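sorry for the late reply, my laptop died twice this morning and i had to redo everyting from scratch. anyway the thing you sent over, i finally got around to it. pasting the sequence first so we're on the same page, its 168 residues, then the predicted structure underneath. double check i copied it right bc i was rushing
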Amino acid sequence: MEALAGRRSIRSYKEEPVSKDIVLDLIKAAETAPSAGNLRARKYVIVTNTQIRKTLAVAAYGQSQVETAPLLVVICADVLRSSRRYGDRGSLYSIQDAAAATMCLLLVAYDLGLGACWNGAFDDQIVKDALNLAKDVLPVAILSIGWPAESPRAPPARDQDEVVSWIE
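ok and here's the structure:
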């Protein structure tokens, strides 16, 4: 519960790299996420290359944290993997698989003292081209990750009556 309550979108990072061991721990955490048919129809692209980060920042409509973070993890839906079993629904299921993995990764990043931001606004084709993704692999999230250089406050909570409906 502490990670759920404490996690924030961090967009400013120290110029300190994230070790490969930590990156592998993040991916291990992501892979614990639930998955349709336990297919784990998702892929991870780890980006530390400065030029690729710049290209992905352009794809992300100029979101500066995509360029300045020392680490990007691009989480992708493996549509073909899921569609082989689930047909047309496989596209949705693979996106859900990727989203669940994204949240697990973000929570463990927070637990390890890292800052991270889920960047979902980007041009799919530019990302696919920059990362040489296969035709049936869809980028779902660009996670900018690093050691935090900011501590944003929590946004105001929403009223339960606004977000919950009961059918009894």
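The chain has a mean pLDDT of 96.
thats about all i looked at so far, will dig more tmrw
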